[in-house]
C-alpha cells in the first residue's frame, strides 16, 4: 500500500519537459576535502600463548579473540557504543565456523551492529588488520575500531576430499590442514622451512648463529617473565575442564630451553648434511590472540589519558618479494614505513620482528644494519610462540608496552607467499591535542592552546542498588518527592578546595535530586568516576543513634551542601636557610564539608583521602558537629497555631548554604595547635539561619595513620546575633559572603523577594559575641527593570528569583565584588564598601554580552523583542567571572515556541568586560625556566633530601640510592656551598656505612659542576648495588653529567626524575607535570625498593617543584 501511494503521488506531479528529461546536473562547487587524520592506539592486550595441544586445545580461536578484545576494550575505558568495526586476523579457519572475526566480536560482548572482517595475510594477518582499522580512522570513516588477530593451531582439522573425488575402493589419504593452509609454500611445493634454509645460505648465516640467537630469545623471555615485564599486556584466559576451571596467565613454552640439547638437534627440513634450521631455532606452533583499540584524535584525547599503551600510528607499509625469499621481505617493507614516517632507523628505540625462524632475524639485521639495535629485547616467536593469525598484532602489543614516551618503535613481520607488513608507532605520554587546536603554538602557555576547552561528560544519575537502594513510600507527613520519585537530576555541584584528591587536585561534589551527594574523581584512564557517597557516612552515624528507619532516612538525605574554606595549621617560625617543608595541613589545610539533611540538621564533616593503597574506600568522612535548626518566627500573614501554620513550619527546608571565612585565635587546650571561628549561612524556608562553628585542632599522637597528624574538635551552635533584624523580609534565593583578608567588617548578601538584603558584620558580631548586636547593619536593595533613564520609584520592579551569586576580585585593588543574576536576566554588582552609599545596583560588565546574545536570538527567530534570558549559574576564578544562561521566547509566545536548548557561557573581568585582545588563560603563565631559576628550585629538593633528619643519617628513612643520587646531583648542578658541604657529609657516611670507595665523588664536592663517570662492572657488584644505578638494558653503570638526564656507558639515554634525581629506565613508571611536562617517578608504580622513599617525597613535594603545577591523574 505504501508503494502504491508513493507511485500515485509521483504520477500526479506535472510532466517533466522533454528538454530536461535527460539533462545531467553538475555542481560548480569544489569538492569538500578532508585532511588525513592521525590514528591512535588506546590500549593493547593479548592472551598468553599456549603450546600446541596445550592449555587452549579446547578453546576456539574466536573465543580466544573475544578474551583479548574484551580486555583491550576494558583497558581503554572507551564506551563500547563508540566502536563501529572489528578487524581480526585468522589464518587457519577450517572448522572455526562462519565469520570468525564476527564471532570474536559478539563473544566479547560488542553490539551485533558492530561490523566485523576476518583478515588472512598468513603470518602478517594481525598487523594487517591493525593497518586496515587505522586507515578507517585516518580517512575519517570511523572514530573507534578494534583490531588484532587470533589462532588456534591445535584445533585445525585434517582434510578429506568430497565423495566425488574419492576413489571407488582402496585407502583414503588425509591432508593436514595445519601444513596445507599454514606452513606450505604452494608455489614451490615445499615446506616454508626450506625458504628459511635458502635465506640462511644466501646471507651466510651459520647453524651456530641461529642456535645462539634462539638461546638468546629463550633467555630474554625468561628474564622478562621473571621481571614481570608482560604483566600489563596479558589477559588471563579461563579454561573449563573436567576438573573445573583453570586460569591461564603465563605463556607456555618459554621455559623449554636446554642449551646442551639445542646444538645437537637434527635439521628439520634438509637432511643432506647442509641443513641449519632445526626445531630449536625455529618458531613453535601455538594458540593465542591479541587485540588493540584504535581511536581518533578526539576520542584519544577524551579516553587516552593514563592508558599504558597510548601511542600514535605514524605509518605502515606492505611489500612483496619472490615467495622463496619471504624471510627477508621485512627488509623491503621497513624502509618504506620509515620513509612514510619521516624518520630514520637511528631514531627507532625498539624493533619487534617476528621470529618465524632465527634466520629471519639474522638476515634482516644484516640487510637493515641493525646488529647493535634493540631487536626483540623480551624474546620473540621462537620462545614466546607463533600463533599465526595473532603474531602480527602480538608483536605490536609487546612493542607498545616497552616503549617510553616519545620513543618510536617498529613492528615488522614476514608472511608466506613472499610478502611482509611493517608499522611505525610513537609512544605518547599524554593525550593528543584537540583537532581544533592550531598548530605552531608556543607550548602550554600559548594563546592557541588556552582557547580550547577540555569537555568531559560525567553520568551522575546512574547508581547501583547498593548506592541508591529502592525507597518504599513513606508516611504522608514525611513524604519527599526528591528521594522517592526523582530520576536523579543534578541540582548542585561544587569543586572541593585544591588538594583533597590525588596529586592535590580537586574533587567534584555533585548533589542529585535523589538527595544523594557523590564525590567524583578522575581515574588513571581519564574517566570521572564516583568514588564516595557522603550519605553513607550519615547513615552509619545515625544508625547507632536512631532506631526509627524513616527518621534515619530523612536524616541521611542531603538537601544542600557547601565546602568550607580549608582550615590551615599555622606554620611555625623556622630558620630562613632551612630546607624543611611545611606539612600538608599548613600548605593545603583540612577539608570541611557542611551539609543540611532532610530533617533540617546542619552537619559539619571532615573529608579525608586515604593514603593507604589497600584501603577499601578512597575517601572517609568524620562527623564533627550536628546542629538542628528550628523555625522560631511565625509567618505574620498566617493565623498562629493554625493547621496551615503548622504545615508551613514542618515543610520548611534548607535550600541554600554559604560558608564564611575562618577567624583564627589562640587555643586554650593543652595539646591544641590553633582554633578558628566560622559561620555558615543557610536559607531555611524564607528565613536566614546562621550556624557558628568553633573548630580546635589538636595533635593526635594516637592516630595509626601516619598521614593524619591533627584531630579536629568542633563546637557548633546557632548564631542569633542578628536578632530579629530580618523578620520582616521574605528571603527566597542564593546567598554569599563578602570579605577580604584582615578586613574589620564581613558582609553577607542574601537574596530576597524582588531584591537583596546585604548585612555588614563587625568581627565581634561575626564571632557571635552577644554584646555586639549593634555591630550588624542591614539594608534592603530592590531590583528595578532597566528603562534607559534614572531608576526611581516609577521604574518597574523586577520580580524574578535570584538564581546565582559569586564574588570575584578586582585585579588592581583586590577588592571583592559581588555579582548576581536572576532567572529573569537581571544582573547587579556590589562591593562591601558600597552597601550604604547608594540604593542603586550597577549592572555587571558581562550584561552587555548577555544582551547581545539575546538580541541575536530575537532577530534570528523574528520574535519582535519578546525574548528573555535566564541566568542559571555564576562562577569566578581570581578576577574572572563566568555566567551560564539560556535564551527563551518571552511573553505569550514562550508557550508555543521552543526554548534554545544550549546553555551559553560568557566571560568577563570582575569590573570590566573582556576586550577582543583578552586571553582567557586560566592556567597561569609558565614560570621562569632559565637555568639559574631551575637550579634554585632544584636545590629545594636537594636540600630536603640531604638535610633529612637534621643530617643524622643513622635515622635515614629514605633509600641510600636516593641519598647518593642527591649528592651526585649537587656536585653536577648546585652552586650552593651549604648543599655541597652536606653532600660531602652524605657521601662520607655512605662510604663508611657500606664500605664503598667514594673518594672520587667526595673530592669533587669542592669543584661544583664536575661530572662523575659511570661505574665499572666490578664497582657495581657487591655493596655497590645499594647506591649505584645500573642500566636495565645492558647492566652498565650510569654517568652523572646532568641533573635532568642520564646515560650509561653503552650509550642508552634516560630522563632523570625531577625530585629523586634517579634515572627513569622503564616505561610506565612515570607521572608528569600537567603544566611544564617535567617527568617524575610515580610512587604508585615504582618497584618495592623505592616505593617507600618515593611516597615520602611525593607527600612533601606534591606538586611540581619547578612550576607548582599539578601532576596528571
Automatic annotation (TrEMBL):
Pfam family, one: TFIIIC_delta
EC number of the protein: 2.3.1.9
Thiolase C-terminal domain ranges (all copies): 309-427
Domain Thiolase N-terminal: 40-297
Domain Transcription factor IIIC putative zinc-finger as annotated: residue spans: 1018-1111
PROSITE patterns given in the database record: THIOLASE_1, THIOLASE_3
Subcellular location: Mitochondrion
GO cellular component: mitochondrion
GO MF annotations, alphabetized: acetyl-CoA C-acetyltransferase activity; metal ion binding
Protein known as: acetyl-CoA C-acetyltransferase
Amino acid at each position: 500500500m505504501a508503494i502504491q501511494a508513493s507511485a500515485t503521488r509521483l504520477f500526479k506531479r506535472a510532466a517533466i519537459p522533454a528538454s530536461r528529461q535527460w539533462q545531467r546536473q553538475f555542481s560548480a562547487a569544489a569538492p569538500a576535502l578532508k585532511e588525513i587524520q592521525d590514528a591512535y592506539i588506546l590500549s593493547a592486550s593479548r592472551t598468553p600463548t599456549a603450546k600446541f595441544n596445550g592449555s587452549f586445545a579446547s578453546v576456539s580461536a574466536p573465543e580466544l579473540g573475544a578474551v583479548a578484545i574484551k580486555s583491550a576494550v576494558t583497558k581503554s575505558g572507551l564506551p563500547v557504543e563508540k566502536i563501529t568495526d572489528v578487524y581480526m586476523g585468522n589464518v587457519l579457519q577450517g572448522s572455526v565456523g562462519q565469520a570468525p572475526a564476527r564471532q570474536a566480536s559478539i563473544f566479547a560482548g560488542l553490539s551485533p551492529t558492530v561490523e566485523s572482517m576476518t583478515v588472512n595475510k598468513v603470518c602478517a594477518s594481525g598487523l594487517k588488520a591493525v593497518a586496515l582499522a587505522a586507515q578507517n580512522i585516518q580517512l575519517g570513516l570511523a572514530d573507534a575500531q578494534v583490531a588484532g588477530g587470533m589462532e588456534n593451531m591445535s584445533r585445525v582439522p585434517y582434510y578429506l576430499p568430497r565423495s566425488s573425488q574419492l576413489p571407488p575402493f582402496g585407502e583414503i589419504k588425509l591432508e593436514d590442514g595445519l601444513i596445507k593452509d599454514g606452513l606450505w609454500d604452494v608455489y614451490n611445493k615445499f615446506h616454508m622451512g626450506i625458504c628459511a634454509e635458502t635465506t640462511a645460505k644466501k646471507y651466510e648465516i651459520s647453524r651456530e648463529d641461529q642456535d645462539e640467537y634462539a638461546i638468546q630469545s629463550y633467555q630474554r623471555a625468561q628474564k622478562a617473565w621473571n621481571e614481570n615485564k608482560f604483566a600489563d599486556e596479558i589477559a588471563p584466559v579461563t579454561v573449563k575442564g573436567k576438573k573445573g576451571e583453570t586460569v591461564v596467565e603465563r605463556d607456555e613454552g618459554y621455559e623449554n630451553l636446554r642449551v646442551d640439547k639445542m646444538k645437537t638437534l637434527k635439521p628439520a627440513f634438509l637432511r643432506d648434511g647442509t641443513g641449519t634450521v632445526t626445531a630449536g631455532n625455529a618458531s613453535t606452533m601455538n594458540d593465542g590472540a591479541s587485540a588493540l583499540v584504535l581511536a581518533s584524535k578526539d576520542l584519544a584525547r577524551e579516553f587516552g589519558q593514563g592508558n599504558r599503551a597510548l601511542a600514535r600510528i605514524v605509518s605502515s607499509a606492505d611489500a612483496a618479494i619472490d615467495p622463496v625469499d619471504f624471510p627477508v621481505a621485512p627488509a623491503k617493507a621497513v624502509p618504506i614505513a620509515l620513509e612514510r614516517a619521516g624518520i630514520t632507523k637511528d631514531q627507532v628505540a625498539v624493533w619487534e620482528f617476528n621470529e618465524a625462524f632465527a634466520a629471519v632475524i639474522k638476515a634482516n639485521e644484516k640487510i637493515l644494519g641493525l646488529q647493535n639495535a634493540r631487536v626483540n629485547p623480551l624474546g620473540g616467536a621462537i620462545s614466546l610462540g607463533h600463533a599465526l593469525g595473532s603474531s602480527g598484532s602480538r608483536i605490536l602489543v609487546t612493542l607498545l608496552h616497552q616503549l617510553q614516551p616519545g620513543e618510536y618503535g617498529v613492528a615488522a613481520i614476514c608472511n608466506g607467499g613472499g610478502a611482509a607488513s611493517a608499522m611505525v608507532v610513537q609512544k605518547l605520554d599524554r593525550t593528543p591535542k584537540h583537532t581544533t587546536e592550531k598548530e605552531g603554538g608556543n607550548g602550554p602557555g600559548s594563546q592557541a592552546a588556552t582557547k580550547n576547552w577540555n569537555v568531559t561528560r560525567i553520568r551522575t544519575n546512574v547508581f547501583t542498588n547498593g548506592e541508591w537502594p529502592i525507597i518504599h513510600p513513606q508516611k504522608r507527613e514525611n513524604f519527599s518527592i526528591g528521594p522517592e520519585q526523582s530520576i536523579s537530576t543534578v541540582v548542585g555541584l561544587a569543586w572541593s578546595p585544591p588538594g583533597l584528591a590525588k596529586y592535590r587536585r580537586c574533587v567534584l561534589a555533585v548533589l542529585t535530586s535523589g538527595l544523594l551527594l557523590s564525590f567524583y574523581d578522575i581515574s588513571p584512564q581519564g574517566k570521572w568516576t564516583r568514588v564516595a557517597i557522603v550519605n553513607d557516612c550519615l547513615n552509619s552515624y545515625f544508625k547507632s543513634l536512631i532506631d526509627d528507619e524513616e527518621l534515619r532516612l530523612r536524616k541521611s538525605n542531603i538537601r544542600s551542601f557547601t565546602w568550607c574554606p580549608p582550615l590551615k595549621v599555622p606554620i611555625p617560625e623556622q630558620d630562613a636557610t632551612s630546607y624543611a617543608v611545611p606539612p600538608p595541613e599548613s600548605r593545603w589545610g583540612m577539608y570541611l564539608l557542611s551539609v543540611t539533611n532532610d530533617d533540617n540538621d546542619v552537619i559539619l564533616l571532615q573529608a579525608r583521602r586515604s593514603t593507604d593503597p589497600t584501603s577499601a574506600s578512597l575517601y572517609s568522612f568524620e562527623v564533627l558537629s550536628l546542629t538542628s535548626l528550628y523555625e522560631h518566627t511565625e509567618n505574620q500573614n498566617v493565623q498562629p497555631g493554625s493547621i496551615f501554620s503548622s504545615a508551613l513550619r514542618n515543610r520548611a527546608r534548607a535550600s541554600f548554604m554559604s560558608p564564611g571565612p575562618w577567624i583564627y585565635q589562640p587555643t586554650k587546650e593543652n595539646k591544641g595547635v590553633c582554633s578558628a571561628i566560622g559561620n555558615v549561612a543557610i536559607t531555611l524556608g524564607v528565613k536566614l539561619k546562621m550556624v557558628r562553628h568553633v573548630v580546635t585542632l589538636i595533635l593526635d599522637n594516637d592516630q595509626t595513620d601516619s598521614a593524619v597528624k591533627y584531630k579536629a574538635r568542633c563546637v557548633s551552635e546557632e548564631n542569633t546575633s542578628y536578632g530579629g533584624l530580618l523578620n520582616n523580609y521574605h528571603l527566597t534565593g542564593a546567598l554569599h559572603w563578602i570579605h577580604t583578608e584582615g578586613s574589620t567588617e564581613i558582609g553577607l548578601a542574601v537574596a530576597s523577594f524582588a531584591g537583596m538584603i546585604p548585612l555588614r558584620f563587625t568581627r565581634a558580631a561575626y564571632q557571635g559575641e552577644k554584646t555586639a548586636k549593634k555591630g550588624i547593619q542591614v539594608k534592603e536593595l530592590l531590583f528595578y527593570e532597566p528603562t534607559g533613564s534614572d531608576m526611581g520609584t516609577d521604574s518597574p520592579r523586577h520580580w524574578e528569583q535570584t538564581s546565582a551569586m559569586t564574588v570575584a576580585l578586582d585585579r588592581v585593588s583586590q577588592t571583592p565584588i559581588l555579582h548576581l543574576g536572576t532567572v529573569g536576566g537581571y544582573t547587579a554588582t556590589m562591593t562591601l564598601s558600597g552597601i550604604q552609599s547608594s540604593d542603586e545596583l550597577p549592572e555587571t560588565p558581562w550584561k552587555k554580552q548577555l544582551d547581545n546574545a539575546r538580541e541575536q536570538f530575537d532577530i534570528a527567530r523574528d520574535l519582535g523583542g519578546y525574548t528573555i534570558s535566564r541566568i542559571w549559574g555564576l562562577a569566578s576564578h581570581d578576577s574572572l567571572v563566568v555566567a551560564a544562561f539560556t535564551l527563551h521566547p518571552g511573553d505569550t509566545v514562550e508557550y508555543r515556541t521552543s526554548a534554545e536548548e544550549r546553555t551559553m557561557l560568557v566571560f568577563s573581568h570582575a569590573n570590566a568586560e573582556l576586550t577582543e585582545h583578552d586571553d582567557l588563560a586560566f592556567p597561569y603563565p609558565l614560570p621562569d625556566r632559565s637555568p639559574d631559576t631551575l637550579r634554585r628550585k632544584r636545590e629545594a629538593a636537594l636540600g630536603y633530601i640531604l638535610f633529612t633528619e637534621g643530617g643524622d643519617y643513622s635515622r635515614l628513612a629514605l633509600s641510600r640510592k636516593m641519598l647518593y643520587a642527591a649528592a651526585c646531583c649537587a656536585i653536577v648542578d648546585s652552586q650552593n656551598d651549604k648543599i655541597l658541604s652536606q653532600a660531602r657529609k652524605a657521601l662520607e657516611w655512605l662510604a663508611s656505612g657500606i664500605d664503598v670507595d667514594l673518594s672520587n665523588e667526595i673530592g669533587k664536592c669542592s669543584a661544583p659542576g664536575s661530572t662523575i663517570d659511570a661505574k665499572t662492572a666490578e664497582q657495581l657488584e657487591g655493596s655497590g648495588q645499594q647506591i649505584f644505578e645500573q642500566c636495565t638494558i645492558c647492566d652498565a653503570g650510569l654517568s652523572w653529567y646532568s641533573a635532568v638526564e642520564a646515560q650509561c656507558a653503552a650509550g642508552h639515554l634516560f630522563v632523570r626524575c625531577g625530585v629523586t634525581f634517579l634515572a627513569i629506565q622503564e616505561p610506565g613508571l612515570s607521572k608528569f607535570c600537567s603544566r611544564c611536562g617535567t617527568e617524575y617517578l610515580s610512587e604508585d608504580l615504582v618497584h618495592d625498593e623505592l616505593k617507600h622513599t618515593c611516597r615520602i617525597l611525593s607527600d612533601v613535594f606534591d606538586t611540581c617543584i619547578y612550576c607548582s603545577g599539578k601532576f596528571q591523574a
